[in-house]
Amino acid sequence: MHKVVLIIVIFSLVVALGVIFAGGEKTSVQNVEIKNGVQYITIDAKGGYSPRTSSAKADIPTKLIIKTDGTYDCSASLVIRSIGFQKILPQTGETEIDLGTPKAREPLQGVCGMGMYSFVINFS
Amino acid sequence: MNKYTFHVTGTHCAACKILIEDVLKEQVFIKNAEVNLKKETVEVETDSEQSIEELAEALTSKIKPNGYTLSVVRQGLTTGGKEIIWKAIPIGLAFLVLFFILQKSGILNIGIGGQATPTTSFIIGLIASVSSCLAIVGGLVLSLSAKISQDNVSDTKTFLLFHIGRLVSFALLGGVLGLVGNAIGINFTFTAILGLVASLVMLLLGLNLVGVFKKHKVTLPSNIFNFFRKIEHKTFTPLVIGFGTFFLPCGFTQSMQVVAFSSGSFMSGFLIMFAFALGTLPMLAFLSFGSASFAHGKHAPLFFKSAGVVVIGLGIFALLSGLAGLGIINPLFNI
Questions:
Q1: B312-326 mean pLDDT
Q2: Which domain holds residue B39?
Q3: DSSP string covering B190-221, please?
Q4: Where in the numbering of this chain does the EfeO-type cupredoxin-like domain appear (chain A) (predicted)?
Q5: Is the N or the C terminus of chain B less surrounded, counting Cβ atoms within 10 Å?
Q6: Touching check for A48 and chain B: CB below 8 Å?
């Protein structure tokens, strides 16, 4: 009898962990703008990256702007493997990263140094 | 001639059998000794007239330095035996849930603007010590502390050395960063691999604390545990591990390293990193000395198993994150 209670407690804790890990905002914010033929994608880095999923146009010159604001956590150490970018971002400021001309269906993934925060940009 | 069977604790490896048998057979009054690793028992033939309890005590004093104890009654069973794990799993999971809710809540994303001074470094250290960095640095400290206390190594001295090693090396390396003005500690791949090693150590120790290795007698290659046991007793080991935490993957540590090397002088880098390490001290000291006091209390078996569950959880988290950080697997989660 006692064991049944414990199993229920264990089960609900596991579910809680699952919700914590899987949960998160899914809405996409308007963070892409095109100025003078160059596409700018802005992502905030602080306690994770926001927005986590962005959609942008393919086949035009694109720059990624990472904004930090008193960021000391892992999201300040950014790695984007596909373009060989890895850097500790300044604690406060904007970092511009040239993405060249991205192709469609080749999403760009950025991840923080320890790997617990990430973002992805889809091009279409 | 009398024949007694004792329960033995601390047998982690195949080689333990040989060691215990050798030590016991050295005693004049012991005619024969045979260890059964599976049952965790020792069968002893003796011509001693001592009672079984006295004998257990006398023999324990011989093998205690190697981390083994003999008892008449099976230890663990006296305090609940297998029931303990059923209490330990929810306790451990509850800690994990609280920890990750804390991360998710955003409470820790306090903005600290302006110039980093030793004071702000100290505050950042305080935040870092309860942040996701705790998963790797704290997890490692907790697992090592629990293991050390469990193995009855002189734990207070070991923990003091660890924390001193950590404070001193952070300060000195911070000073060096300020002097050189270069990012020596910031090779991503290097820290990520170090992080993977740390998470594997956590998993191994976590499983060991929970008792998986003991129960199913998954005896690891004996030299691994002998190696652990040997380095546990060395003075410089905790110092070196304290030093090593400087390079463990932790966003906060890495940010502070950048602040230190852009600070421009030995003294300012020294102060910034020292203040940061000092900020992380309360939490880490709590983990290590807390383990020690629990380990010597009456809830020790429950504590070890709960700590094991926590450490396994953090180890899995650190391992998956580390693999994602290295680009080996896709990031599975966002905390």
A1: 86
A2: 2-75
A3: HHHHHHHHHHHHHHHHHHHHHTHHHHTT-PBP
A4: 14-116
A5: N
A6: yes
